[in-house]
């Protein structure tokens, strides 16, 4: 069951909210628990089994670690690593078995060996990547003494399976969400209206923008051999905007759904296209994944004993700047390799992660040389023109990365990048061929208008204004005119129904 379907929006969510507020406060968590498992059964019948198995592993491992004193650190580490290996073993088996078996079989064929691994065509349980990272963060935090293990199994189970964020995140920490989902919340006009606003805004981004852009994007990427020049560039640009509109739209629907119950989810996007550097972009895009990799991979590696030996070795043998750069870059490699591998079992995803690793590590290496270049050229770093240049440069790098991310394979992605420079021409507008790419003129007008509205809302938030509060402060007739305009935009202009193929949320497959 998708967050954008009528079943979810018109039946499941309203019924859950109604039942939640009808029963006594202290039993309301049971409604969320039962509704979460019903949500999984309607969407993926296998998920409740794997989710319950992961929850049991984590729950008992955390209790065991909590009982061990400071003098039993080795035992605590064994429990921690054993349970994490079990969790990630399940994830790797379902997500990466087919990938590794195919590549091993290719290697065996080249070595003229008759032995092969069986390919089982395993189906990936919905949301497994998200709840695995969530479970691992809880175990690591308990082992570090950040908070004690939760002895209440019902509360911990609800933290693990709360339905609004299981499909695409955000990846929630226990201290952010554990108590929130369990304690009963009273009915609040602000939560109901705020939640519905977020859901409507998320649907607008998903149905009006992302799903309409999808038609053009699929036409080019699914038949990439037939296109080059501006077509490929436009498809890469639209896919970048499609992915943002859809992923952030899903986060809005998830956050709005949670707010209906008085629960606040962590922010997962913060106007990433306003970024002036790649490092800033990744602090604004998929924030929960980036912070997870930073806190549990980067810092975990940086504070380890082998890494401290590496720092000492670098200080003795390398110049001062390289002595700082080299160890950090080694830890950064693990972060970005993990980022790529997390997205999927394909070489293109691994290359996608290493693409950003290369750019970030190179930028850090050259930073002392480039730091004063604008000043020497007489460029004001705070000028509107220079800031605009930085944003365009960052966005261009992101678009190239997204092209590789969307392409059918790494080889295809690289070929498509080179094809942009072959036969590039804007004559596609004059001869009308650009309007025959799955989107006609009317589709492109609606898409452009949607993108302008999305960009305007982002610009307001970047300037410190909250569009939802600005709208809520308007006179009643004006406020409801905006609400009705949004509702009718989704109902009338959304890319669904006759002539439009249903589009699943992209990140639900990761």
Automatic annotation (TrEMBL):
It is a multi-pass membrane protein. The keyword Nucleotide-binding does not apply. Keywords: Acyltransferase, Cell membrane, Membrane, Transferase, Transmembrane, Transmembrane helix. The lineage of its organism: Bacteria, Bacillati, Bacillota, Clostridia, Lachnospirales. One of its GO terms (cellular component) is plasma membrane. One of its GO terms (biological process) is alginic acid biosynthetic process. It holds the Pfam family MBOAT. One of its GO terms (molecular function) is acyltransferase activity. The chain crosses the membrane at residues 6-22, 78-97, 117-140, 325-343, 349-370, 391-410, 442-460, 480-503. It is found in: Cell membrane. Belongs to the membrane-bound acyltransferase family. This is MBOAT family protein.
């Amino acid at each position: 069951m998708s967050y954008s379907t009528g079943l979810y929006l018109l039946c499941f969510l309203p019924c859950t909210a109604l039942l939640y507020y009808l029963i006594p406060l202290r039993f309301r968590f049971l409604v969320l628990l039962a509704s979460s498992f019903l949500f999984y059964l309607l969407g993926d019948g296998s998920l409740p089994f794997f989710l319950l198995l992961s929850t049991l592993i984590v729950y008992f491992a955390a209790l065991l670690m909590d009982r061990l004193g400071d003098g039993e650190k080795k035992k605590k580490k064994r429990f921690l690593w054993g349970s994490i290996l079990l969790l990630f073993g399940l994830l790797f088996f379902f997500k990466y078995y087919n990938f590794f078996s195919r590549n091993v079989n290719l290697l065996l064929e080249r070595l003229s060996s008759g032995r092969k691994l069986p390919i089982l065509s395993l189906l990936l349980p919905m949301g497994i990547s998200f709840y695995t990272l969530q479970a691992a963060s809880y175990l690591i935090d308990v082992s570090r003494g950040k908070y004690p293990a939760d002895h209440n199994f019902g509360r911990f189970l609800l933290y693990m399976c709360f339905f609004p964020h299981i499909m695409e995140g955000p990846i929630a920490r226990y201290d952010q969400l554990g108590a929130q989902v369990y304690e009963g919340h009273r009915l609040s006009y602000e939560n109901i209206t705020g939640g519905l606003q977020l859901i409507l805004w998320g649907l607008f981004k998903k149905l009006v923008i992302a799903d309409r852009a999808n038609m053009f994007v699929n036409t080019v990427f699914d038949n990439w051999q037939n296109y080059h020049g501006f077509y490929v560039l436009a498809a890469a640009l639209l896919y970048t905007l499609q992915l943002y509109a859809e992923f952030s739209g899903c986060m809005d629907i998830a956050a709005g759904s949670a707010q209906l119950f008085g629960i606040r989810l962590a922010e997962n996007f913060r106007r990433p296209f306003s970024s002036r550097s790649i490092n800033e972009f990744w602090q604004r895009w998929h924030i929960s994944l980036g912070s997870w990799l930073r806190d549990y991979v980067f810092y975990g590696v940086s504070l380890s004993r082998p890494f401290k030996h590496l720092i000492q070795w670098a200080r003795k043998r390398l110049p001062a700047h390289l002595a700082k750069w080299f160890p950090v870059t080694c830890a950064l490699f693990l972060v970005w390799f993990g980022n790529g591998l997390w997205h999927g079992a394909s070489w293109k995803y691994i290359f996608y992660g290493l693409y950003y690793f290369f750019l970030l590590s190179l930028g850090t290496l050259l930073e002392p040389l480039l730091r004063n270049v604008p000043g020497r050229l007489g460029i004001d770093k705070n000028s509107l023109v220079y800031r605009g240049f930085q944003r365009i440069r960052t966005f261009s790098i992101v678009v190239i990365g997204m092209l590789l991310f969307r392409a059918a394979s790494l080889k295809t992605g690289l070929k498509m990048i080179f094809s942009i420079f072959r036969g590039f021409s804007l004559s596609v507008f004059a001869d009308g061929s650009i309007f025959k790419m799955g989107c006609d003129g009317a589709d492109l007008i609606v898409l452009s208008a949607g993108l302008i509205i999305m960009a305007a809302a982002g610009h307001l938030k970047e300037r410190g204004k909250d569009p939802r509060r600005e709208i809520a402060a308007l006179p009643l007739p004006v406020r409801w005119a905006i609400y009705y305009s949004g509702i009718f935009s989704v109902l009338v202009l959304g890319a669904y129904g006759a002539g439009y193929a249903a589009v699943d949320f992209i990140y639900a497959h990761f």
